[in-house]
Protein: Medium chain dehydrogenase/reductase family protein
Organism: Natronospira bacteriovora
Amino acid sequence: MRRIRIERPGGYDRLTMETVADPEPGPGEVLIRVAAVGVNFADCIARMGLYKSAREFEGWPLTPGFEVAGEVMAVGEGVSTVKVGERVMALSLFNAYADRVCVPEHQLRSIPEHWSLAEAAAFPTVFLTAWYALHALGDIQPGHRVLIHSAAGGVGQALVQLARRAAAHVVGVVGRSHKVDSLKAHGIDVIDKSRQALWSEAGRLAPDGFDLIADANGYPTLKQSYRHLAPGGRLLVYGFHGMFHPDRRGRGRVNWPAMIASWFRTPRFSPLAMTSENRAVMGFNLSFMGHRPDVLRTGFDQLLQWAAEGDIHPLPVTTYAFDDVASAHRDLESGQTTGKLVLLT
Ligand SMILES: NC(=O)c1ccc[n+]([C@@H]2O[C@H](COP(=O)([O-])OP(=O)(O)OC[C@H]3O[C@@H](n4cnc5c(N)ncnc54)[C@H](OP(=O)(O)O)[C@@H]3O)[C@@H](O)[C@H]2O)c1
């Protein structure tokens, strides 16, 4: 099999291809012949050596990647839900940048008939993240006012779809004007913060504040996101991409001075203030949820039921050749992309 390996943390030049023996599925595992791999911003952070769960669970060298789609090649003892040859998508929790991957049975599902393999590879991570944020933590209800930062991105568009499905009033925020169109089809209010004053516009659209705000920017918006919660509101924190400032030479390495400054500028929330203001701050990271198969199972099943009912749809994808993974990382880190990026093996 071919896989992408990172020997040591660093820039795009650390992403190298290697050929090794195929893995064999152990009991309860499924071996997938991978056709498409979803790319996530977390993979870029892992490449830089700053992703905590990658350091804790994998170490170096590292094969990043959380999700794949392809065909079942072989099944281990006790596997009963899929057969050899079936089209499946899976959450792998690392090691997905490869053309063969073994995953535990509960982390994969059959692909809905009309979805392409690229669309399927782009589904598990962002939709499970959005589901966990809005349903497991946010308890989203019809009529809720929901603000979604980075709404045109991978997780962002999944959040928009799930919030619309839940009959919430959605405001999406984007950082570049060319992204506005990708959200129009969802019938939501959009704030283009490159042209509009984000917080006065948010205040105009929700004068009493928001019931839910999904924020993965980190220090640039967290404090104001908290201030714009309605009483009883919840701030859902699931990432910190605003901390990643490009290095000056565009090599994809960590810009340490800017990173350290961002760390100091990240707000610390006070439980005393949260209690008297009736505002909650909730954080999570799915890559630390591998020990909770019940959560992944519930989320996956719920999402695929909604997909079957036509309430949610695969995200728009931009594809890259497997060996052009560096371009996919560079583009994702540029902050210009919309929807999902997918590698085709
Ligand atoms: N906690 C979890 O379990 C979990 C799971 C999956 C993803 N995540 C997090 O969710 C976020 C979105 O991930 P994604 O893969 O779907 O990426 P994405 O949203 O498709 O792309 C990142 C977007 O972030 C915004 N951004 C702001 N500052 C940025 C910077 N300095 N560098 C690059 N982008 C910047 C840009 O949009 P705008 O300029 O339009 O805002 C950019 O398009 C990431 O922070 C990721 O780590 C968390």
